[in-house]
Design brief:
This protein is 44% helix and 17% strand. By secondary structure, the protein is of the alpha/beta class.
Length: 318
């Protein structure tokens, strides 16, 4: 064998050895990142509390939402369903009529967080169902599956609403809740009572938004990012790509209102436009908000936010 062939073999061995050593070193880091973000590692994690008490905007939204919940406590009913063997909990605010919105919050959030987004729906004449996603609040579960199994949970809640006599059902979703709703709405099993979706800060894929979170925190991407996605497959047993909205919006036939922020650094405008263009809905609209970061759009323009929803779904009882 020529000397250069031996040289190439040696370089290859060193490269493989270096990669193996790097993976051995970073795998525990990726495991810790994955568990901190997507696994309920203790009973008190992701409870019915403010998810970011150090963030002034998050606290303001939380406290405003709590006041809304207390104001309408007289029409609130606690309820639950079983989905995928898990007991899931929710609250239905009955304002009358046969229309209802199901609010699906973002990662690490409970049903009390969803109170903040309920007012435009009340004004539009809808009942409001807020829920604890699996592994959040009082709901059972250990793993966040990035919308895959949560889509089945959403359909179970829809079935429950249909049984309650609701004839028009909409989703209002924030961040990862959008992945679950879009996957559910494109499922052949989705009931015809589901008429539409209002989505805030929807990402194209969880990998993309998680990458941007890591970049914002100045964390090294390779190979931790892909190891985290592999951990989703290994421990939660689902493919992160399955619920990617960019992969599923082409199946939607229901009405869709996209709400995006020009300052969103996680669901960035370029990706948001790509998602909107891919959506197959014959009745779709995109509304931009110049202020407000990811999931915080309503805080900076509550009347504009509420009006966009009310005008799209129709009706205003004020």
């Amino acid at each position: 064998m020529e000397w250069w062939a031996w040289t190439l073999i040696g370089v290859g061995v060193l490269a493989v050895g270096g990669l193996v050593a790097m993976l051995a070193k970073t795998a525990p880091i990726a495991r810790r990142v994955y568990e901190s973000q997507l696994v309920k590692t203790s009973p008190d994690k992701w409870g019915r509390v403010c998810s970011a008490p150090e963030n002034e905007e998050q606290v303001a939204m939380w406290e405003t939402g709590l006041r809304w919940g207390e104001e309408h406590r007289a029409v609130c009913e606690e309820t639950s369903v079983v989905s995928d063997g898990l007991r899931l909990y929710g609250e239905l605010f009955r304002f009358g009529g046969e229309k209802c919105v199901l609010i699906l919050p973002g990662r690490c959030e409970c049903l009390k967080y969803s109170y903040y987004f309920a007012e435009p729906w009340r004004r539009a004449g809808f009942n409001v169902l807020v829920v604890d996603p699996r592994a959040n609040g009082k709901s059972e579960g250990k793993y966040n599956t990035i919308g895959v199994r949560e889509s089945g949970d959403a359909l179970r809640w829809v079935e429950w609403l249909v049984a309650q006599g609701m004839k028009e059902i909409w989703f209002h979703t924030i961040c990862v809740g959008s992945a679950a709703a879009i996957l559910a709405m494109g499922d052949p099993a989705c009931p015809p009572e589901v008429k539409g979706l209002v989505t805030e800060g929807c990402f194209t894929s969880f990998r993309e938004t998680f990458r941007r979170h890591m970049m914002a925190e100045k964390r090294p991407l390779f190979p931790v990012l892909d190891l985290c996605m592999l951990n989703v497959r290994r421990f939660a047993g689902v493919s992160p790509a399955k619920a990617a909205p960019i992969r599923n919006v082409g199946r939607l036939k229901q009405s869709v209102l996209f709400l995006f922020g020009e300052r969103d650094v996680f669901s960035v405008p370029a990706e948001s436009r790509r998602l909107y263009a891919r959506c197959a809905s014959p009745d779709k609209k995109l509304v931009w908000f110049p202020e407000g970061g990811h999931s915080h759009l309503r805080l900076h323009d509550p009347e504009g936010y509420d009006r966009a929803i009310i005008d799209f779904v129709g009706g205003d009882r004020a």
